[in-house]
User: What shape does this take?
Amino acid sequence: MKILVSGSSGLVGSALLPVLRSAGHEVIRLVRRPSAPSGPEDSTVLWNPETGELDGNRLEGLDAVVHLAGENIAARRWTAAQKARIRDSRVQGTALLSDRLANLAQPPATLVAASAIGFYGDRGDDLLNEDSSSGNDFLSEVCRQWEAASLPAAEKGIRVVRLRLGIVLSPRGGALAKMLLPFKLGAGGKIGSGQQHMSWIALDDAVGAICHALTDSNLSGPVNAVAPNPTTNLEFTKTLGRVLSRPTLFPMPAFAARIAFGEMAEALLLAGTRVEPRRLADSGYAFQYPTLEGALRHVLDKPARGR
Assistant: This one.
């Protein structure tokens, strides 16, 4: 297939590109600024969601689009301006791309658009699937607007998969990368009560879920991209310590998290979301790393004990 990918320099996008190319697909990167080609197979299209710059003519002939672009939600403290950047980078970019795709003479068959399990909000012990209602906090509202922005593509007849990603496990970025140093130093511990649920997915399975969504023509609408075994923060802490062979004796109280990270602490550290990948499982996707310890040992290159 001929596939356009936005967010190709991010954690998931940078892992996705070589997988698509090795499978024989032609990949075109949607980028905000010109860059030197990384190789003879590298092709780019320029866009700017803030100004509405995106030449629709460059999008003709595509078979599929993977849309991953968006401001890093944990890059800095959530001021009003930063929250606006988080929202606008997702909503404006998705709206622009969906509008251009919907107006093509021959639109692509498929759009796989990233969303997040932040859609559900803080839901305690409830087990959530794609039919569960949305939450009422900032990230929930962002996700609702983010997903709604892809409606023009769906109304055009493009098969739109809204991939609600959980915590993507990789030492190269995201939550796990931020945890590694204190845990390696033996200063890791649970956050708050430790009973808040964490719904995660190994990076390889995040890429695998995207590839599955590109090729399974029966999959559309919201799809939870999480492993089938969500855990609590306390169990995550214990498991990461065991994989790293380090103690986990230094908890971060909830008040300290709030002081250090402000509003972001409530949404990203203290809130709990227990999500199951019902539609992925029903569609036959086989997870490479369904258990947390196996996933952590893989991404951190730590062999199983006794080996």
